[in-house]
Design a protein that fits this description.
2 helices, single chain
């Protein structure tokens, strides 16, 4: 039986069990679009003239930041949150219409913040002044999308030099000019043999050398395009696309490409897409959504659905399993490695009763676990973890393997949160950016 049919049957059973209002809510969350709540603004006019493009020392140009580790170089951050944080600006127009949910996180280079959104018919890409909240430019293209968890983009864009790359939930990979938002080229992975996964394309693009790489699924599980022209360079493997970002690993001064696809973790040669090895890791719904962690020759990866986590030791000839357990089961919340210890959420991402844990990378030993900060996402800056739970509450945590140490909290940091706030907090150049559907809030750190 096809997985899509299984999902529909599960929905029918749940509707029959819960009935009425609760059955509808189950259907809405699984197959529909989370409705927008709170203030909804019209998109304002763009700035004129456009400010020049700038660059700073603590930018956040791509998924998980410049280091791909979920860390930012901002220093001197405020740790006394007893009076909250100063809100610099807020916009409420990233999603237009009531059923246009979009979850992508922002990226930042200097004065330009890039974040995707959606209206009734179009994928949108906003360029906002990171300092003032003014709209610099707006890009758009018409795209037909499904409605599972909303039609808006999930993937985080990638800023590279004078261009930015976005990836829509229906498979549109688009290259834009960073300065003014001019659309330079657009390709859809389905034209190369891709097949959309159940919850839409979600893998953030990876710009590497002359390539931009995404997961396409189908007969084009991994695809590399020329970053300047959009020409197809290579495609590799067959099977279901995962929901995780591609990252690289330096092994004996050779760059390898890691792809957390629908049924496992694969290592590829980035120049031609040749598969070097694959670790089987099939979840119940083909959802491998977290970003693997690389530490020298060790790779850590984790998934939900009772899959757990494991650490691999990698050589030029392949890999061996260091350890495997169920201490951490991260559904789509990326853990962070700090001084040999992994900190992150474990549990189902739609319920605010997960566990935040610290485990030792070398052994998989659980150092501690707490249920005090719900379920959510996390980022690291200036010696601290900033955690956002799915209700919009913010926590400041001091990472320490000897025990859980909460330094501060703000309840709530995002208002009018009625559905899970899944988008990861982003820190760039002394500012904290929180996104929930149509809202984007900027705080001074």
């Amino acid at each position: 039986m096809k997985r899509s049919v299984k999902i529909i049957l599960v929905i029918v059973v749940l509707v029959l069990i819960f009935g009425g209002y609760y059955g509808y809510k189950v259907y809405q969350v699984i197959m529909g679009s989370e409705p927008l709540t709170g203030e909804l603004e019209l998109i304002p006019a763009a700035m004129n003239p456009l400010p020049p493009v700038t660059k700073e020392n603590a930018d956040w140009p791509n998924w998980r930041g410049a280091s791909f580790e979920g860390k930012n170089e901002t220093t001197g951050t405020q740790t006394d949150w007893s009076r909250g944080l100063k809100k610099l600006w807020q916009v409420n127009y990233l999603c237009q219409d009531k059923s246009t949910a979009s979850w992508s996180s922002p990226v930042v280079q200097g004065n330009r913040l890039i974040v995707p959104g959606r209206d009734e018919k179009n994928d949108l890409l906003f360029c906002i002044n990171a300092d003032s909240g003014e709209l610099i430019w707006l890009g758009s293209y018409e795209a037909e999308t499904g409605t599972s968890h909303g039609p808006g983009p999930r993937a985080t864009p990638f800023i590279s030099e004078d261009k930015v790359y976005s990836f829509g939930r229906s498979g549109d990979l688009v290259c834009w000019q960073l300065e003014d938002g001019k659309l330079l080229w657009r390709k859809n992975v389905k034209d190369a043999g891709g097949s959309e996964p159940s919850w839409g394309y979600s893998t953030t693009p990876l710009v590497l050398d002359n390539m931009v790489i995404v997961q396409g699924g189908g007969s084009a599980q991994v695809i590399a395009y020329d970053k300047l022209t959009g020409d197809l360079l290579w495609k590799s493997m067959e099977g279901e696309a995962g929901y995780s970002a591609a990252i690289t690993m330096n092994l004996d001064n050779e760059i390898k490409l890691l792809i957390y696809q629908g049924t496992g973790l694969s290592c590829l040669n980035p120049s031609d897409g040749k598969v070097l090895w694959t670790v089987p890791w099939p979840t119940e719904y083909g959802v491998n959504a977290t970003t693997p962690i690389v530490s020298d020759d060790i790779i850590f990866h984790t998934s939900g659905y009772k899959m757990g986590c494991e650490a691999l030791k990698v050589t030029q000839n392949g890999y061996s399993i260091l350890w495997k357990n169920n201490v951490m089961e991260a559904q789509h919340s990326d853990p962070i490695l700090i001084n040999g210890y992994i900190y992150g959420y474990s549990g189902e991402s739609a319920r605010n009763n997960g566990q935040f844990k610290c485990i030792e990378l070398s052994t998989g030993k659980e150092m501690w676990s707490t249920g005090q900060i719900g379920q959510g996402t996390t980022t690291f800056v200036d010696g601290h973890l900033i955690c956002l739970d799915i209700k919009g509450n913010l926590f400041l945590i001091k990472p320490d393997p000897s025990g859980f140490k909460k330094v501060g909290q703000i309840k709530p940091a995002i208002r009018n949160v009625k559905n899970p706030a899944w988008t990861v907090p982003v820190v760039a150049n002394g500012k904290l950016y929180l996104r929930y559907l149509q809202q984007l809030v900027c705080y001074k750190l």
